[in-house]
Amino acid sequence: MPGNTFGNIFKLTTFGESHGEAIGGVIDGCPAGICLDFNRIQQELNRRKPGQSSIVTQRKEADEVRFLSGIFEGKTTGTPIGFIIENTNQKSKDYSHIKEVYRPSHADFTYDKKYGFRDYRGGGRASARETACRVVAGAIAKQVIPEIKITAYTKAIGTVVFEADKHQVDFTEIEKNPVRCPDKKLAQTMEAYIKNIRKQGNTIGGIVHCIIENVPLGLGEPVFDKLQAEFARAMLSINAVKGFAYGSGFEGTKLLGSQHNDIFKEDGTTQTNYSGGIQGGISNGMPIYFDVAFKPVATIMQPQASINTKAEKVEITGKGRHDPCVVPRAIPIVEAMAALVLVDYYLIRKTQL
């Protein structure tokens, strides 16, 4: 099963299943001598872990990372960094009802048909629990490039949208509410909306917005490895992601060229930033920003028609512990994947100087 490694120089390979003994990863290519703040790494995991509020899955996992190699006396040694996160709160019996049944819009059918076998416990390798490994690697990547500031927040939950100017967002408000929206009143509306959806046995999607500041000029490798292309690949590899748009995105199609062009100032910055900090696939020194769209969670607590492994029609109702909306917990995952892209291209750039 290929496809478990991300990156060119700074590489992350993850392993493990949702209901296995543990999940984990190996980071290769991390520079030596980086003094790691382990509390910051754990804080990033705490932002992603289940059970942190009433609007997410109530699976209780400490999500404590244990490093096995590549670190000595608190510093990276330049050798592979191995780590594991033990699974301590599996309830595999919650999934016995789908052993022979394919859940609509899940990976059950495609995994089974591709490999002829599947781990039905919580989705196995297809579970979003794997993303905890990405958060660990992303937290280390952030410490390799500390001058670059990566901030993501909830922009929309269903039809409830935060419309404020991205340049006037109060980042200090993001972690003060369980929805992770920087607007206090709108966050309360979003939270109530999610709780109402959950009572109906249903789920809802949303949009994560990410802003990256202090990006050095020159990151990106045209023509096929453009910076925005790698961001897109990174974000679309996250479970439940259905779309990616950077800069002006689809809204830019409504403008004329004379309106959309970013006019240069004498210092090389631009008066506007419809380009989203990237031109020709290369960072231009302006802030990078993009949206990531997440679908509603596929597991709903309502009866649905489906088929089983014998191609017979059946009815299925979701069981177990699931997020009514993945967006709040996806914030640190989006940041982590952005950090992995940036640290990789940062190191590639260093080899060219």
Helix/strand/pairing class, anyone? alpha+beta
Largest sheet: 5 strands, antiparallel
Order of helices and strands: EEEHEEEEEHHEEHEHEHEEEEEH
Question: Largest sheet, order of strands side by side?
Answer: 1-2-3-7-4
- According to DSSP, the number of beta strands is 17
Q: Estimate percent helicity.
A: 25-40%
Mean pLDDT: 94
Oligomer: single chain
Q: Uncertain segments of ≥5 residues (pLDDT<50)? A: none
End-to-end Cα distance: 36 Å
What layout of secondary structure does this protein have?
Layout: E1 5-6, E2 11-16, E3 22-28, H1 38-48, E4 65-67, E5 71-72, E6 75-76, E7 81-86, E8 101-102, H2 108-115, H3 131-144, E9 149-157, E10 160-161, H4 184-199, E11 206-213, H5 227-236, E12 241-246, H6 257-260, E13 278-279, E14 282-283, E15 288-294, E16 304-308, E17 313-316, H7 327-352
Antiparallel strand pairs: 1-2, 2-3, 3-7, 4-7, 5-6, 8-16, 9-10, 9-11, 11-15, 12-15, 13-14, 16-17
Characterise this structure:
With 353 residues, the chain is an alpha+beta fold. The protein is 25% helix and 21% strand. The chain contains 7 helices and 17 strands. A hairpin with a 2-residue loop joins strand 9 (149-157) and strand 10 (160-161). Helix 3 (131-144) packs across helix 7 (327-352). It is globular and about 65 Å long. It starts with a strand and ends with a helix.
